[in-house]
From TrEMBL:
Transmembrane segments: none annotated. InterPro entries: Elp3/MiaA/NifB-like_rSAM, Methylthiotransferase, Methylthiotransferase_CS, Methylthiotransferase_N, Methylthiotransferase_N_sf, MiaB_methiolase, rSAM, rSAM_horseshoe. This is CDK5RAP1-like protein. PROSITE patterns: MTTASE_N, MTTASE_RADICAL, RADICAL_SAM, TRAM. The keyword Zinc does not apply. Potential regulator of CDK5 activity. One of its GO terms (molecular function) is 4 iron, 4 sulfur cluster binding. Keywords: 4Fe-4S, Iron, Iron-sulfur, Metal-binding, S-adenosyl-L-methionine. Its cofactor is [4Fe-4S] cluster. The keyword 4Fe-4S applies. One of its GO terms (cellular component) is mitochondrion. It comes from the Eukaryota. Belongs to the methylthiotransferase family. MiaB subfamily.
Length: 551
């Protein structure tokens, strides 16, 4: 389907030199139907070399009929294997892809050897993430037993683009960026006809609001719901704004429909997903007149223009949390620079919105924060944390940190360690800085922290946050927690595990007691490590009952 803002390029291309080892050339029943003489036309390499390099879609939609008929666009029972690398956003994107392909007549397989197409959802956030994908592509090539298409989707597709198609070895035949999943049936059909195909056009509007995602595990009691796509923040180290494009919000009504559907399927916990959830704005027609400007936390300045108009994240959270008061609601990730007061008050009021906030700090040093373009200082971050803690006393914080960013001196690193000590996070994700080509840091800053120093700082940050989480988890021994049971624990048949309101994993021995996945269980905490806690079963309960007993 063509999107309104999608610019089309009418350049005609065909496979020529690149087709030499292309799997389908000889065997595909589908041959190009072009009246154009493809032997004389420009080839893929020609196309990529020349002024057309900027083309984001090829072959152009208008030229598709030259290769395949409408009939051949259908999946017709062909088998696809779907593999996901990277973050939860990618898992969610693969659910959309699964939905779109199943609707188009494809069938999913877990068996690589029988797949007609292998689709890989990719991540570009750090160099190591892309390295893994290249290894996967080489593995697929080595183990190829039958003619098949390999498609690279998502962030790496958007970043690396046609180089994925032209790298020697014919590792991949289809490239589709994060806003092109609707075009997959066409791209896959083109590949079956022997034509390498790519669509990396980003969109200002695509939210896949009308696509029903299909989860890998339909029986899971926890689900993620994407509320927006892209990011406008342009943190200097981050590739995401370039791979996922401009920020746009999915209309509230479509989000609520999905949450209701998941509730009807028995889901007990929803996590709202977006790169910067608290700048969510539903500006679709039904919302435009309802605009309210969320008031920011006092004293918290921002270098970014605050978005206004339409329905805000607080309104969305309000609606989502009203769908079912026995369904836990979480969200990830908000940006500290625009954390509105009304969201803090809503979390306090609503029993089913978890008192856990992922508040990525990235660094505890003003100079580094400035170089990262984060829009806050250590002090404003800390005043936000204090303000939230004063409003919601039992709130727990988690965070992301980057060690060894450009220009980070030892003192700056010490400031990050001291921020960790001060906030006492209940969990942290710590990453060594990885310079990404094309980012603002790549253009303007020098990646001057030696690898061994990055790695040492990464280790120190990890060791410290683990010490803090161990202390925090041990301090809960003897208390009671309400745990939403998510599944069987790996440690044994009779052990179930789930999470507290604060997001900590608890393993519970069920003995003869009947505990089911999706139950809320009151557990007495008996032990703790830095990663999880163990508890004794007390009773099966509910959010309402537990809250009542606490008061
Ligand atoms: N290098 C290291 N970590 C990064 N992140 C984003 N970009 C980079 C990079 N270039 C981290 C940030 C972000 C998380 C999702 O990944 O901490 O919050
Ligand atoms: Fe990247 Fe910053 Fe956007 Fe997060 S908020 S996705 S770190 S640019």
């Amino acid at each position: 389907m063509l999107r309104r803002n999608t610019r089309l390029f009418a350049t005609f291309i065909k496979l020529s030199a690149d087709r030499t080892c292309c799997h389908n050339a000889a065997t595909s029943p589908v041959q190009p139907k072009s009246k154009l003489d493809i032997k004389d036309g420009p080839g893929l390499s020609h196309f990529l070399k020349d002024s057309h390099r900027k083309n984001k879609i090829f072959p152009a939609h208008a030229d598709t009929h030259a290769y395949i008929s409408t009939e051949e666009l259908k999946g017709d029972g062909k088998k696809v294997m779907l593999t996901t690398f990277g973050c939860q956003m990618n898992v969610n994107d693969m659910e959309l892809v699964r939905g779109l392909l199943l609707e188009n007549g494809y069938v999913e397989t877990k068996d690589e050897s029988e797949a007609d197409a292998v689709l890989i959802m990719t991540c570009s956030i750090r160099d190591g993430a892309e390295e893994k994908i290249w290894n996967r592509l080489k593995h697929l090539k080595r183990n190829q037993r039958k003619q098949r298409t390999v498609a690279v989707l998502g962030c790496m597709a958007e970043r690396v683009k046609s180089t994925l198609l032209t790298t020697p070895g014919n590792l991949c035949q289809v490239v589709a960026g994060p806003d092109s999943y609707r075009d997959l049936p066409r791209l896959l059909a083109l590949s079956r006809s022997g034509t390498k195909a790519m669509n990396v056009q980003l969109s200002f509007e695509e939210t896949y609001a009308d696509v029903t995602p299909v989860r890998v595990d339909a029986s899971s009691k926890t689900a993620f719901v994407s509320i927006m796509r892209g990011c406008d923040n342009m943190c200097t180290y981050c590739i995401v704004p370039f791979t996922r494009g401009r920020e746009r919000s999915r209309p509230i009504d479509s989000i609520i429909d999905e949450v209701r559907r998941l509730r009807d399927e028995g889901v007990k916990q929803i996590t709202l997903l977006g790169q910067n959830v608290n700048s969510y704005r539903d500006t679709s027609e039904s919302s435009i007149s309802l605009g309210v400007h969320s008031k920011m936390v006092d004293g918290f300045s921002t270098v970014y223009g605050q978005k206004s108009g339409g329905r805000s994240f607080a309104t969305l959270l309000d609606h989502v949390s009203r769908v079912d008061d026995e369904m836990r609601i979480r969200f990830t990730s908000p940006h500290p620079k625009d954390f509105p007061n009304d969201v803090i008050h809503l979390i306090k009021q609503r029993n089913n919105i978890c008192n856990q906030i992922h508040l990525p700090a990235q660094s505890g040093d003003d100079g580094v924060l400035e170089a990262m373009g984060r829009g806050y200082t250590r002090d404003t971050y800390l005043s936000l944390v204090n303000h939230i803690r004063n409003t919601i006393p039992h709130v727990s914080f988690t965070s992301d940190f980057i060690g060894g960013f450009c220009g980070e001196r030892e003192e700056a690193h010490q400031n990050t360690l001291s921020l960790m000590r001060q906030v006492e996070y209940s969990y942290c994700f710590v990453f060594p800085y990885s310079m990404r080509e094309g980012t603002r840091a790549h253009r303007k800053l020098v990646d001057d922290v030696p690898e061994e120093v990055k790695s040492r700082r990464h280790k120190e940050l990890t060791t410290l946050f683990r010490e803090i989480t161990l202390k925090k988890n041990l301090s809960r021994v003897g208390t009671k927690e309400l745990v939403l049971i998510e599944g069987r624990a790996k440690r044994g048949e009779n052990c179930m595990s789930g999470r507290t309101d604060g997001g900590i994993v608890v393993h519970i021995d069920r003995e003869e007691k009947k505990i089911d996945i999706g139950d809320y269980v009151v557990a007495k905490i008996t032990g703790a490590t830095s990663q999880s806690m163990s508890g004794e079963f007390v009773s099966v309960s509910s959010l309402r009952e537990y809250e009542h007993d606490l008061n």
